[in-house]
Amino acid sequence: MEQRYTDKELMARVWDVENIKTLIHKRVYYIADDRREDELSDLWVSAPENMATASFGRNWGFYVGMDAIRGYYVDAHAKRLAQQMERTGAAEPNVGNLYAHPASTGLVRLAGDGLTAKGLWYCIAQETTALGDGTADARWMLERIAADFVKESDGWKIWHMVIAADLNCEAGENYSKQPVYVDWDSDPVKAEFGTPTVAALTHDPTFNWWDGYPFIPEPYETFHDSISYGPEGFVPNPLKGLSAGEGRGYMAGRHAR
Amino acid sequence: MTNKTQDLETMVARWEDQRELKNLMGKYANCVVLNREGELFDLFWAKDDEDVCLAFNDGYYKGGLDVSGYYEAAAGRNALVASLLRDRFPEKLGAMGDDEIYGIGPFKVKPMSCPVIEIAGDGRTAKGLWYCQGASNEVGAAGPVANWTWGYFAVDFVRQNSWRILHLMHVNDVDSTCGQSWGKPQVPYPDLPEFAPLGEFRYPPYTKALTVRPYYSPGRPMVPAPRIPQPYTTFSETFSYGF
Lengths: 257, 243
Hints:
The structure holds two protein chains of two kinds. By secondary structure, chain A is of the alpha+beta class. Helix content of chain A is 30%, strand content 27%. In chain B, 34% of the residues are buried. Chain B has one domain (8-237): Nuclear Transport Factor 2, Chain: A, CATH 3.10.450.50. In chain B, strand 4 and strand 5 form a beta hairpin. Chain B contains six helices and seven strands, in the order H-H-E-E-H-H-H-E-E-E-E-E-H. By secondary structure, chain B is an alpha+beta fold. In chain B, strands 1, 2, 3, 4, 5, 6 and 7 form a seven-stranded mixed sheet that branches. Chain B has helices at residues 8-33, 37-44, 64-88, 90-93, 98-101, 196-200; strands spanning 53-56, 59-62, 107-109, 112-119, 125-140, 143-159, 163-177. The interface between A and B is large, with 43 and 37 residues.
């Protein structure tokens, strides 16, 4: 069988995967320092054509384009920190806040053409927010991180990212006692997410994994929209989730009460 | 990062280097979970280099004597825990000798994730940063208590016959009791008389006692993570995780 890549090309592909993992690992330390602006500047796409199509998704939809992403991820966050300072009387942002989103279980697929890649990680995260009364709201946040990467002139960059929360509960509480049905209206992560460019319930964690999004990346030759972790690649699963009729009538019973 | 202009042999060698560095820290973590602190200095450190340095949240051990002294004290503490547990459970452990029971009790889990590794251009040193979402299930004056330990391993390595640790900084943000929120006041467990000697145990004093990283509290200002390694040519060009 004819070898597709030379030995050096193969080794370059090995390093591509290593460098993509390192990119996501660096993001962990940027988050810990709450360097969101730097994260977008250093780790995300900067080529104009990629900036226009970049996206940041969560359970409730996608922000599309780097300007929209910055508005949500940096500007709105800064406003919330300023509001927190007013409430707590802190002299600087992030007093008493803690962010830890370590990524593990990395799965990276490098395109056959070597121009893009896809990756999926799991993250047992926690975020802690000072309340101003000498205590803080410490929360476990279990989530999947899916990303498309594109190789730009200065290396691999994040192009599309989806962070899909599975669980968000207070530290010290028994998370098996969580209500089955998530009350999105009181969910702090949803409140933080605001109104995205494209609204869609992409991952409903009710009954956990039934919707299967974000999907596991498969081997591929060249990138196309249908496999994107951007909004163009999201297709509601007709066979899974409450909207497909799963749930054995629990939802109807809940409404009846 | 690797430079695609490198020749194939160099690309392979540097990939093997970063894999060896990950494996080294993997072995270190496995030795800790097995309570083999007494072997860590000989197994993994650049033990003949007087620049070796081991940092925790509240100080630095510097030089071979002080770094190895810390590990010997940790091993001694493990032995003390084992002997107290033997006294507490004579029907199961009473007939066993010190060597047989060494290691029972402490369960210190330090899984390292999120590596960012840079190998110097000259190939003589390397730097690595890991996140550690760990647990320290220790036996203390209150008996067995499980704590979450969330923090960082930041390491400088030097190449001798094999890669060796030159500086190791293991600092935590969270070190708080499992089952309680680290955002609320911790409720300590009461001391138990059978474990009282552990309340009197002290590690050797630091070579340099100072706050390397304050633990998280609801009043703590944002404290940056240990710096992410950056590409460098030779160690004098970059920062150090040592004192």
